[in-house]
Amino acid sequence: MRFEIEPFEGAIPIRFGMSEADVARILGDPEHAGVNSSGYRNFTYGGPVMSIGFAKEDRGVNHVAFSAEVEVVFRGLNVFAPGGFDQMCKLDGNPLECFGSIMLLKLGIEFNRFTTEEDAKVVAILPREVVAILDRKHLKPFPIV
């Protein structure tokens, strides 16, 4: 299945705010449904291939994360394709590093393990309200190549 990043809206067809039932209607029953160490509900599909987190308050989708086995695109660009990360950083124009993750705050996207040789790269799509509460003191400029 292909997922299209819509900044601050979701990874279409999964939209922020969707209920667990809505997600299950689109993707089927999760391989695992549980609560993470922070107390948030979480669905996983394909092992660690896709993870969908739900807000504590309304239990609506509040983040979606994918590994490279999933086709994730932004305006036609596969974010996991060679050069995709660099192009995404340029599109945002102000990438920031935070504890090894690269944050594209203008797009609501977090890249994990894209600056290392590790194979287990992950991209997370975040809603505006999550981006708004990030602790800015830990963010530092990340050079665009």
Outline of this structure?
With 145 residues, the chain is α+β, with helices and mostly antiparallel strands.
Written overview of the protein:
- Helices cover 15% and strands 37% of the residues.
- A hairpin with a 4-residue loop joins β11 and β12.
- Strands 4-5-6-7-13-12-11-10-14 form a 9-stranded antiparallel β-sheet, with helices on one face.
- The protein has one domain.
- The protein has helices spanning 20-27, 84-92, 128-132; strands at residues 2-6, 10-12, 14-15, 32-35, 41-45, 50-54, 61-67, 71-74, 77-78, 96-98, 101-104, 109-112, 122-125, 140-141.
- It is built from 3 helices and 14 strands.
- The longest helix is centred in the middle third of the chain and has 9 residues, at 84-92.
- The protein has 145 residues and is of the alpha+beta class.
- It starts with a strand and ends with a strand.
Write the layout of secondary structure elements.
Layout lengths: L1 E5 L3 E3 L1 E2 L4 H8 L4 E4 L5 E5 L4 E5 L6 E7 L3 E4 L2 E2 L5 H9 L3 E3 L2 E4 L4 E4 L9 E4 L2 H5 L7 E2 L4
Parallel strand pairs: 1-8
Antiparallel strand pairs: 1-2, 2-3, 4-5, 5-6, 6-7, 7-13, 8-9, 10-11, 10-14, 11-12, 12-13
